[in-house]
What we know:
By secondary structure, the protein is α+β, with helices and mostly antiparallel strands. The chain has helices at 11-23, 42-47, 66-74, 84-98, and strands at residues 2-6, 27-31, 55-58, 61-64. 43% of the residues lie in helices and 18% in strands.
Amino acid sequence: MYKLYNFQNSGNCYKIRLLMNQLGIEYESIEVNILQRESRTEEFLTINPNGRVPVLQVGEKYLPESNAAIWYLAEGSKFIPTDRFERAQALQWMFFVSAQ
Ligand SMILES: N[C@@H](CCC(=O)N[C@@H](CS)C(=O)NCC(=O)O)C(=O)O
């Protein structure tokens, strides 16, 4: 089962939870209170040296960056277009949003 290092009020975390719900993917949520700097502890920095949530845990591996997690989870689903140009457009919007 996946684990999601997660802060309830974070939009970057929300979009992963939304996708997992849409795809019916089960996961364990591990709440990291960023307001109490729980993402900056020595322990958490071994999970993500960037000190931020979300982080998706896949087996023994950690995947920070919400868009990377979304791309990983959505592979093979209707959320990643099969058409090459449309796939690039999906990435276009993901890059656009992360640059705002
Ligand atoms: N580009 C990253 C941004 C992650 C990010 O900014 N996370 C914020 C919450 S939305 C965070 O963990 N802030 C805590 C901190 O910087 O200590 C992503 O998309 O996952």
